[in-house]
Every structure is written in structure tokens, then in C-alpha cells.
Specification:
It contains 15 helices and 7 strands. About 55% of the residues lie in helices and about 10% in strands. The chain has 3 domains: about 70 residues, no CATH class; about 180 residues, Orthogonal Bundle (hpI Integrase, Chain A), CATH 1.10.443.10; about 40 residues. With about 350 residues, it is of the alpha+beta class. The longest helix is centred in the middle third of the chain and has 25 residues.
Length: about 350
């Protein structure tokens, strides 16, 4: 029986939480992907890179009733949405929004990178999420309930994040405490839904606002000649930049896994494009190797193991080397033995 048929038999007509659905699909080597097509409401998408599995659902709060599972082959010419990888790409998007007086779109874009949330979650933020009732700014956002997972997440609000929020308030002449219970990015539809206490109507208003933002985002990306990005790219950019800055921290990927709520680190690696980037390097390495052969140059393979150490451990080893170097000055054999002992210590201290 084909996988899609097995999944239909197992899942259709049953109710799951988002975590349960993700777990089932990850067992089949399919990871969740995001859609920027507002016409695909009520569809969860998963991919194994060669194909996609789409799950239609009806949602009631945190419960998902699966109504259909379909297999979709990858469309020709369609590329995977990626993170913004260069300083120039990020700066050009920022400048486009500011230079064209797209203040709201600018802040949505910045919060997408700073907070690493999905577009719907960013658009649902209220001033009360950012401020205490006494007017004091929060350093942690603890009230955001993710639309997709239904989880309440804790996010740090850094000084830099506040810098751009303050800029937005100043530019738009907003006094947050006068709009404490209101949305940061209000629309007429959202306001009507709030007054009517209608959650379903509010979700539809969010979807409509997200569609409007996607339109402005695509206009900006086209104007900046940036391809293969979508509104979801800012969420991925948070992880990509975090990894680039902290790649030598042994806790980097586990921390990002926690922030994103992924089931395992492998999912996080794929999500922030680490594996794609490494694969690209391997192709380039092979190309350079063969080019050297064609040019009559003997290829050099430098694959000496790289050993990661904590800074304090490295400092300790260097101090011992300095002290012992002075102690055994002139005794070559004893100096070599000492070096070997120090290398053994390095092996013990290495970060796996």
C-alpha cells in the first residue's frame, strides 16, 4: 500500500493535536513547510524535498480533524523558500520599506527577524503583549499563543527590538498605553471581530491582513532583485543568523530547536538551510578538485580534524605549554613527550 493511502486510512476522520500530526509525518521523513498562498487555508504541508504531502483539516482550538491526505509532486521551476543570507539583502528590504513610507510593513519585517515568529503570530500581537499595565516595557513576551501549534511561547524582547518599536511609535504618533488592549497592526476587520468576540472572524481578518502584507513583501523583494524568498523567510533568517553567530557554541542547535519547537535537531538543521549550504560547499569542493587536475595541479586535501574547545580549556592548555616549554628548554625528546601529553588532554576536553 502506498504511503499516501496508509496515511489516509490512518488519519482521515481522526482528531489530532499539531504535535501529534508533526510526529506522525516526521516518522515518514516529512517535515513541516510553510505556505504563502492565502488560497490554501485549512491545509498543512509537509515535504521530504522530492514531494509534498498535504493534509486538509478542520480546526477547533487546538484540535485538528484531518479530512484528506494528498501527495503533491514538486512543481517544475519552483524553489524552496530560503532565509535572507546576506547583509545587502536585509538592508535593501529595510530601505525599500522605509524609503517608500511603508512603516507598518517595515516593523512587521523587522519583528519577523527579531522574534522568529510566523506572519500570523506577528500580526496578532497587541500592545499589552509588550507593556505592563503600569507602562513599563517587558523584556519577555510571554503571552503569544502560536496560531499553528496552539503553544504559548516565551520570546526575549531585546533593546534593539525596542529601538525599532519605539521608532514605529514615534513615526506613527502612537501612544501604546492609550491603545493598550488594541492590536499593534489594527485593521477594520480585526476590530470588528474583537468587538464581536468572534475568534473565527478574527482569524479570517488576520488571513486577509497577511495576504496584504505578502503582496507588499513580494513587491519589495522584486524591487530589490531578491529571489526565492517569502514572508516566511524572516522567520528562517532568525535561525540562520543565530547559527552563523553562534555556530561554535555547542548549545546553538539545541537552543534553536527549542525556540522553533522542532522535534529534533535534524529538522532544525534542514529548516535553517544548514544542510543545503554544506551540500553546496561539497559540490564546489569537488568541482575545484577536478579543475586542479585539469590544470595540472595536484589537489590538496586538508582534512585534519577540527577540535572545538571551550575558551577556558584552551587558555589552560596554552598556559601549560608555555610553562613546560620554559622548563624543558633544550631537551627535545622530553619536549615532544610533553606536547603529546597536552594533545591527549585536548582530546579529552574536545567538544563533541
Amino acid at each position: 500500500m502506498k504511503l499516501v493511502e496508509k496515511l489516509n486510512k490512518k488519519m482521515v476522520g481522526n482528531i489530532y493535536t499539531m504535535e501529534e500530526i508533526d510526529s506522525i509525518m516526521e516518522e515518514k521523513k516529512y517535515i513541516p513547510i510553510e505556505s504563502d498562498d492565502e488560497s490554501e487555508e485549512g491545509v498543512l504541508k509537509y515535504s521530504n524535498k522530492s514531494s509534498q504531502m498535504w493534509l486538509k483539516y478542520v480546526r477547533e482550538e487546538e484540535d485538528y480533524l484531518v479530512s484528506d491526505v494528498t501527495l503533491r509532486t514538486k512543481k517544475a521551476g519552483k524553489t524552496k523558500v530560503r532565509a535572507f543570507r546576506t547583509v545587502g539583502e536585509i538592508k535593501s528590504m529595510m530601505d525599500y520599506f522605509r524609503d517608500n513610507d511603508k512603516d507598518e510593513e517595515f516593523l512587521i519585517f523587522m519583528l519577523g527577524i527579531f522574534l522568529g515568529r510566523r506572519i500570523g503570530d506577528t500580526l496578532s500581537l497587541k500592545w499589552s503583549d509588550l507593556y505592563y499595565e503600569n507602562g513599563k516595557k517587558k523584556d519577555k513576551l510571554k503571552t503569544l499563543v502560536e496560531e499553528k501549534t496552539g503553544k504559548t511561547v516565551e520570546i526575549s524582547l531585546t533593546d534593539i527590538t525596542w529601538k525599532y518599536i519605539d521608532w514605529y511609535c514615534d513615526k506613527k504618533k502612537i501612544v501604546p498605553m492609550e491603545q493598550f488592549k488594541q492590536d499593534i497592526f489594527p485593521t477594520e476587520g480585526k476590530t470588528k471581530a474583537i468587538l464581536a468576540c468572534d475568534g473565527e472572524l478574527y482569524s479570517k481578518a488576520i488571513d486577509k491582513q497577511a495576504a496584504s502584507y505578502r503582496y507588499e513583501f513580494k513587491k519589495a523583494a522584486n524591487a530589490c532583485d531578491i529571489e526565492d524568498v517569502s514572508t516566511h523567510s524572516t522567520r528562517k533568517t532568525f535561525g540562520y543568523i543565530s547559527h552563523e553567530i553562534n555556530k561554535f557554541d555547542p548549545d546553538c542547535l539545541p537552543v534553536l530547536q527549542t525556540i522553533y519547537g522542532h522535534k529534533d535537531i535534524e529538522t532544525t538543521k534542514i529548516y535553517i538551510d544548514i544542510m543545503d549550504e554544506k551540500a553546496e560547499k561539497y559540490f564546489n569542493d569537488v568541482g575545484k578538485y577536478v579543475e586542479d587536475i585539469d590544470n595540472g595541479v595536484t589537489p590538496v586535501i586538508d582534512n585534519i580534524p577540527v577540535i572545538a574547545l571551550k575558551t577556558n580549556d584552551m587558555r589552560s592548555i596554552l598556559q601549560q605549554a608555555f610553562i613546560l616549554g620554559r622548563k624543558f628548554n633544550g631537551d627535545e625528546e622530553e619536549a615532544i613527550q610533553t606536547v603529546n601529553k597536552l594533545i591527549s588532554k585536548v582530546e579529552e576536553m574536545r567538544i563533541s
